[in-house]
Amino acid sequence: MADPATLTTPGRRTGGFGTIGVVGAGTMGAGIAQLALEHGHDVVLFDVEGAAVERARRRIADGLARRVARGGLRDEAAAEATGQAMARLREVAAVEEVAGSVDLVVEAAVERLDLKRAVFATLDAAAAPGTLLASNTSALSIDAIAAATTRPERVLGLHFFNPAPVMPLVEVVAGAATTPGAATAAAGLVAGWGKRPVAVRDVPGFIVNRVNRPFTLEPLRLLESGAAGVTRIDRAVEAAGFPMGPFALMDFVGIDVNLAVAVTLFEGFHGAPRFRPSPIQRRLVDAGRLGRKSGRGFHVYGPDGAPLGPAPEFAAGPDAGLPEAAIVERIVLAIVNEAFHALGQGVATRDDIDLALELGARHPRGPFAWADLLGLRHATALLEALAAAEGERFRPAPALLEAAGG
Ligand SMILES: NC(=O)c1ccc[n+]([C@@H]2O[C@H](COP(=O)([O-])OP(=O)(O)OC[C@H]3O[C@@H](n4cnc5c(N)ncnc54)[C@H](O)[C@@H]3O)[C@@H](O)[C@H]2O)c1
Predict the structure, then answer these.
(1) Computed over its alpha carbons, how large is the radius of gyration of the chain?
(2) Using the 8-state DSSP alphabet, how is residue 76 labeled?
(3) pTM for the whole thing?
(4) CA torsion, points 118, 121, 123, 129, in degrees to nearest 10?
(5) Counting Cβ atoms within 10 Å, is residue 344 exposed (0-12), middle (13-18) or buried (19+)?
(6) What is the CA(44)–ligand 1 centre distance, in A?
(7) How many domains does the chain fold into?
(8) Which of 65, 134, 181, 284 could form a disulfide with 158 if both were Cys (CB 3.0 to 4.6 A apart)?
(9) End-to-end CA distance of the chain, in Å?
(10) Phi and psi for 108 in degrees, rounded to 5?
(11) Hey, which of 28, 106, 136, 200 would you mutate to test ligand 1's pocket, going by the most ligand atoms within 8 Å of its Cβ?
(12) How confident is the model at residue 82 (pLDDT cuts 50, 70, 90)?
């Protein structure tokens, strides 16, 4: 939570960074701009759509007002504090104008590599040599984005989670050329904003979007095979302490968004079977059933967004009755195994992977804590049995086999 005094003190800044540029004023760009304003920075904001900037302005003002009110300032004092923070927000009409006088640009435009590369090339040409250029990409390669610039050593990923003002985790992604100094400075900045940075190598999906992929893919496979249905899977997972069942989560995030990340990972891991996207997702997206935002996905939603129950074809089954404990065990084992794959590839430390899943995906415990609870030998044996019955995707990761003692 921002100190309300910060909002009333123009020019108080964090971590040696002054003005922050934000490119893209959608869900994430608006949230990141709000955070920077809360912590005393001047912010320069650009979006290709004027209407997006207008919407962002309203959302940022509302968000700041809520934060200030929660910090104890009310009514006129809150309005004044919010007004002063909003006065530090400046919109510009061209992306090159963002880069002029800023220490850091965070790009949060749409998730398309060609578009991000074009934005970074323009920013690079306009920015001072010392300016850091960061992307909020969910799963695209930082190296591929950095290659569009002449300063790959000052390009990195700053992966905030939605909603950015609230979610505590930020993945700080170092590309092959990113200097340790650039990553450390950016991590220090977001730590000053009250976030918990975790250091990640530039691999598809970083930590959370990769290690948590089985949370939605395994339930989709159970649904594909008819082993269990939407309602029972969601209920079993919620009963195990996860904040939301996987189908409710896909509806909430957007089935199209979830599918896009799944496709990026499948391609990024060269078609590895464990990352194969589900035809059920594709069918729903092709039919315009994107989840809560379109009123229908795995569940049906009322005009106010309240869930009205499962969509008819998912309400009836098929459901062969796989026990709820086995449903959860399968999902958790797949996540544990993916965490060991990531660890073996040096993606991040064990502690940071656990923390990332707890803070970024709100799991009741991190995958390594889960593995310890199950016992490494037991987890390995369960995965081997699943691999024999269900296929290669459950084959224990080399780092798990090693940790379990061969
Ligand atoms: N929504 C999430 O949960 C989430 C979480 C973490 C990361 N991300 C990532 O953050 C980025 C933004 O996602 P979002 O959910 O805010 O999307 P969004 O669709 O809400 O906003 C994207 C904005 O970018 C603008 N835009 C498009 N092309 C642009 C350009 N060339 N220059 C400037 N602006 C441009 C669009 O007009 C739109 O306003 C994506 O890379 C996404 O993968 C999203």
Answers:
(1) 22
(2) H
(3) 0.92
(4) 170
(5) middle
(6) 16
(7) 2
(8) 134
(9) 46
(10) -135, 45
(11) 28
(12) confident
**280 & 300 share domain:** yes
Q: Domain check: are 375 and 312 in the same one?
A: yes
On whether the CB atoms of residues 197 and 157 are closer than 8 A, the answer is no
Q: From the CB of 23, is ligand 1 less than 6 Å away?
A: yes
Please name the residue whose Cα sits nearest to atom 15 of ligand 1.
27
Ligand 1 centroid from CA 55, angstroms? 13
Domain that holds residue 107: 4-202
Give mean pLDDT, residues 176-201.
Answer: 96
CATH number for the domain harbouring residue 8: 3.40.50.720
Q: What is the pLDDT of residue 10?
A: 46
Overall size of the chain counted in residues: 406
Quick one: CA dihedral 213, 276, 219, 250, positive or negative? Answer: positive
Q: What's the mean per-residue pLDDT of the chain? A: 93
- In the predicted model, what is the mean pLDDT of residues 293-307? 92
Is residue 284's pLDDT more than 90? yes
Q: What is the mean pLDDT of residues 298-319?
A: 89
* Candidate ranges 78-87, 118-127, 308-317; pick with highest mean pLDDT: 118-127
Q: Judge if 152 and 218 occupy the same domain.
A: no
The helix (H) or strand (E) run that includes residue 200 is strand 196-201
Q: What value does the mean pLDDT take over residues 238-244?
A: 97
